[in-house]
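Figure 6 in text form: structure in, sequence out.
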């Protein structure tokens, strides 16, 4: 379980971009974040994934007060709270499988990525997760030849192999055709429902949030202005964003 209380973020020497944000997320929740350009969606996700420092606030994850923990404990949280960029970086010349095993910059220690050391368990786990994503026929394809949707789904498999319990995804379906976007979001939704993951995804465009999310958070100028169950937003609610 994730409990965020009073999260504020000031850019050093610059403006405050997140103001006193509080919410909770439980196992199985698929939460969408909406808000216009510059409202703080990406910054919120980066703070949740500890890619950005917090100016103030409390971050409770599975009963631990994360910001009060030491470096090692924070690294463990980074492994469990995976950050998925809009266009996840995959090593273009390496296969999907190799990318999944090596892991992402955010989730896997540098020595692991440099040496490319692989345990037998990692290999089996990676193949299993790639197969579950319906990407078995792409496991040995170089990443540069994967489509946008396949890259996203490979990145999801990579996050899971390295222990993700929470996935924070920044615009995971931006630039994808509707069919590929449906595939990515169905998969994220299934991970929540079947495996109890928490997914927090920026889904500002279109009606993806309304169709897939259990809950919708809305940001405006860095403030949380909306926190509702996933459903079609009213005109008044849309005006808040
Ligand atoms: N390093 C930085 N220095 C100064 N301002 C920053 C920095 N990073 C983000 N900001 C500002 O913080 C605010 C929130 O940015 P953020 O990228 O989170 O917005 P967003 O809602 O994700 O926007 P978009 O939908 O356009 O990606 C913006 O006003 C942005 O200019």
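Output sequence:
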């Amino acid at each position: 379980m994730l409990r965020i209380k009073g999260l504020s973020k000031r850019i050093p020497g610059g403006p405050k971009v997140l103001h006193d944000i509080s919410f909770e997320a439980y196992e199985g929740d698929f939460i969408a974040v909406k808000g216009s350009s510059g409202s703080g969606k990406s910054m919120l996700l980066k703070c949740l994934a500890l890619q950005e420092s917090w100016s103030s606030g409390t971050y409770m994850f599975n009963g631990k007060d994360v910001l009060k923990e030491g470096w090692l404990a924070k690294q463990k949280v980074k492994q469990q709270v995976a950050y998925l960029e809009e266009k996840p970086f995959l090593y273009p010349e390496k296969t999907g499988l190799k990318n999944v095993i090596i892991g992402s910059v955010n989730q896997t220690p540098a020595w692991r990525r440099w040496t490319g050391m692989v345990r037998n368990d990692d290999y089996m786990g990676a193949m299993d997760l790639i197969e579950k994503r319906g990407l078995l026929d792409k496991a040995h394809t170089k990443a540069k030849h994967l489509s946008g949707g396949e890259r996203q789904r490979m990145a999801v498999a990579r996050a899971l192999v390295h222990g993700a319990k929470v996935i924070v995804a920044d615009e995971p379906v931006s630039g994808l055709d509707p069919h590929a976007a449906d595939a990515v979001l169905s998969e994220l939704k299934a991970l929540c429902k079947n495996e109890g993951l928490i997914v927090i995804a920026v889904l500002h465009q279109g009606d993806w949030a309304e169709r897939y999310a259990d809950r919708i958070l809305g940001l405006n100028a860095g403030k949380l202005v909306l926190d509702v169950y996933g459903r079609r937003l009213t005109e008044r609610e849309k005006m808040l964003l």
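Caption detail: The mean pLDDT is 91.
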